[in-house]
Amino acid sequence: MSEDTGGRPCPRCEQPMYRRHCKYVCPRHGVVYDCSDTFY
């Protein structure tokens, strides 16, 4: 299983984001960060 919950909070709504492959996905806002974002 490649999904991980309870990770980093979404900067917009503070919901825990899912980690999918190389992306962090907010349940409300969709993909927020991916591995090419060097600032997070």
How do the helices and strands line up, and which of them pair or pack?
Elements: E1 18-20, E2 23-26, E3 30-34
Give a written overview of the molecule.
A hairpin with a 2-residue loop joins strand 1 (18-20) and strand 2. A three-stranded antiparallel beta sheet has the order 1-2-3, with no helix packed on it. The model has no long low-confidence stretch (mean pLDDT 79). The protein is mainly beta and 40 residues long. It is globular, with a radius of gyration of 9 Å. It has strands at 18-20, 23-26, 30-34.
Helix-strand topology string: EEE
Rg computed from alpha carbons, rounded to a whole number of angstroms: 9 Å
Low-confidence parts: none
Mean of residue pLDDT values: 79
**Roughly what fraction of the amino acids lie in strands?**
25-35%
**How are the strands ordered across the major sheet?**
1-2-3
Task: Briefly characterize the structure.
The chain has 40 residues and is mostly beta strands. It has no helices and three strands. The chain has one domain.
